């Protein structure tokens, strides 16, 4: 019998916000409607993915600014903003502004590394500094400092009729404690813990040690969670959120079930072994009734050590599919995991 899981404290979901290039407004409206639905269903958090030069959300901070005015309670997060595309000072200003507009509900998640297809976009993104840009943890450190109120410049005071601050304005109290790092490696987990961030885990981990035989996703993710908490000032109380793909079928139509099964079957092969030069291992999508999914989660070594989730919605489904999945997660899967129904 598997050890008892931590009681589920926060139930969240994650959406990529896909849209049709011929009608992008409709796709963005669909995302906002799902966030509104999530609040009505009692979800604790809604998270949006980040996609550049694709047909997905390229400006999650702007989308969440809109969502902040259409909701009142649900927390709003990014999972994740790749900082290689961002200026940390300007991003700090945007994040603080939206956090204030939301009433302190913003949970920004970030990651580091070169932008995807960097050789093909660097001249457009950094025409004068492409080869000098640092895409390491220093970029996160700058964002943390700016959000937490560290000085940006040695100049402040009044100049004519204008008043200048030496720190990012507006300042959003508490936002510095709601910054998340999206990490899939042991090194990233340790770094996030050492710098007092929260940790976003997902359905992807990096295989770094294969001496113990076939890689086990849950075991690897568990090692990241424990390493993070060992380095974090708050220890076992440090926040970790898990973001596996779950597809409950309790209220799905036969047609929906068939499409869901086809979707999962097309992605299952990548879960058998590490993929690509980075040795990335993907978790299996969890498809079935809420009772079946809950049983598999309770047997998942990493899930047993988290009390927050941001279950990821599949990439390519339709709006009605997402409504069905979110409704089943809130009303059936959440209670099966120990969280009372709304």
Could you provide a short overview of the structure?
The protein has 342 residues and is α/β, with parallel strands linked by helices. The chain is 37% helix and 17% strand.
What fraction, in percent, of the residue positions are helical? 25-40%
- How many beta-strand elements? 14
Oligomeric state of the chains in view: single chain
**Beta-strand share of residues:** 15-25%
Report on the biggest sheet: 8 strands, parallel, barrel
Strand-pairing-aware structural class: alpha/beta
In spatial order, strands of the major sheet run: 1-2-3-4-7-8-10-14
Average the pLDDT over all residues and give the rounded result. Answer: 96
Summed up, the helix count is 10
Unreliable segments of 5+ consecutive residues? none
The rounded Rg comes to 20 Å
H/E series: EHEHEHEHHEEEHEEHEEHEEHEH
Distance between the ends: 29 Å
**Dominant shape:** globular
Overview of the molecule:
- The protein has 342 residues and is α/β, with parallel strands linked by helices.
- The protein is 37% helix and 17% strand.
- Helix 3 (88-102) links the parallel strand 3 (75-82) and strand 4 (106-111).
- Helix 2 runs parallel beside helix 3, helix 3 (88-102) packs across helix 5 (137-147) and helix 6 (186-194) packs parallel to helix 7 (217-231).
- The model has no long low-confidence stretch (mean pLDDT 96).
């Amino acid at each position: 019998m598997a050890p008892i899981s931590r009681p589920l404290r926060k139930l969240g979901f994650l959406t990529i916000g896909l849209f049709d290039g011929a009608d992008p407004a409709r796709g963005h409206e669909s995302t906002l409607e799902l966030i509104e639905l999530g609040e009505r269903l009692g979800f604790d958090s809604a998270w949006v993915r980040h996609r550049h030069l694709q047909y997905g959300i390229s400006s999650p901070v702007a989308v969440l600014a809109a969502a902040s005015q259409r909701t009142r309670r649900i927390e709003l997060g990014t999972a994740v903003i790749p900082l290689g595309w961002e200026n940390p000072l300007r991003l700090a200003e945007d994040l603080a502004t939206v956090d204030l507009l939301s009433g302190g509900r913003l949970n920004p998640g970030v990651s580091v590394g070169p932008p995807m297809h960097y050789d093909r976009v660097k001249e457009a993104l950094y025409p004068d500094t492409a080869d000098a840009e640092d895409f390491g943890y220093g970029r996160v450190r700058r964002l943390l400092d700016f959000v937490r109120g560290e000085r940006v410049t040695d100049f402040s005071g009044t100049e004519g009729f204008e008043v200048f601050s030496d720190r990012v304005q507006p300042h959003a109290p508490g936002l510095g404690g709601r910054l998340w790092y999206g990490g899939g490696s042991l090194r990233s987990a340790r770094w996030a813990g050492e710098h007092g961030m929260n940790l976003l885990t997902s359905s992807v981990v990096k295989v770094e040690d294969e001496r113990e035989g076939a890689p086990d996703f849950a075991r690897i993710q568990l090692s990241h969670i424990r390493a993070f908490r060992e380095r974090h000032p708050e220890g076992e109380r440090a926040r970790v959120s898990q973001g596996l793909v779950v597809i409950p079928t309790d209220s799905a139509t036969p047609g929906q079930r068939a499409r869901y099964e086809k979707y999962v079957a097309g992605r299952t092969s990548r879960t058998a072994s590490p993929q690509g030069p980075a040795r990335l291992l993907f978790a299996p999508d969890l498809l079935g009734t809420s009772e079946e999914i809950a049983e598999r989660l309770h047997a998942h070594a990493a899930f047993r050590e988290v009390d927050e989730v941001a279950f990821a919605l599949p990439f390519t489904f339709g709006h009605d599919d997402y409504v069905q999945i979110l409704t089943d997660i809130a009303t059936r899967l959440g209670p099966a995991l120990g969280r009372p129904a709304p």
